[in-house]
């Protein structure tokens, strides 16, 4: 059982992540890749990405066993939830952190020889690990990231409404089927017995796409407190049917432009290049999407920067109301 101990200050500082955490989703997706749980939801994704899994992913699975502890340093806290920041934080992991986490991991399994260099903080070993995360994410998660973002965005909006309607008591009661809230302690089913004392730091609640079963947190209670918990899924989310449906609804070019902007904010010229269309067409399609409330646009120096809205993300996720 996991017991999270709150103070009034902790409740005031507890927040819900508005976006998925790339480093956590990378780690959790490694569990989904090698386990057989969630067949209806994840089997399509597993089948589609297995031929694309980079060879360097072996470095990650050495540190993320199918069950039990995974090294805390693989999921560093960053102020902005983007892969680049997570990779940079991983590259800057202090030697003491590396040694501590690898020592804990070695109690549960025999570690390969290359981890000795990692424990010593050798730059080449740390960079090799960060490159493996980058390559795995690019091959196995990036093609689906717009959908992942959309579902987490929807869950964030739903839970923010729960807090507005009934406070944290309502939110904690809805967080997970095993959640039991009796101030000042939130109890959740967990593989091991663990207490997390927030000590006035608050709690980062992270709705997670690849989390399955029980919620997850860090082993080291001195790190920034975080709780990952699973969200709902639609069957077939990883297939191409949604892309075809979106093209039928919006038209092929407009759907491609929306997906391009959904990947990350971009200028009109970037939209044209990445969506493989002309500059006038990209501008016209972005204007139509803006009029429909699916994207927003703002002046950015000499360019116009386009960003997707919550409604646009929901449409890409295939769950617009």
Automatic annotation (TrEMBL):
It comes from the Bacteria. GO terms for molecular function: DNA binding; DNA-binding transcription factor activity. The keyword Disulfide bond does not apply. This is HTH arsR-type domain-containing protein. InterPro entries: ArsR-like_HTH, HTH_ArsR_DNA-bd_dom, Metal_resp_trans_reg, WH-like_DNA-bd_sf, WH_DNA-bd_sf. Signal peptide: none annotated. Residues 234-321 form the HTH arsR-type domain. It comes from Kibdelosporangium phytohabitans. Pfam families: HTH_20. Keywords: DNA-binding, Transcription, Transcription regulation.
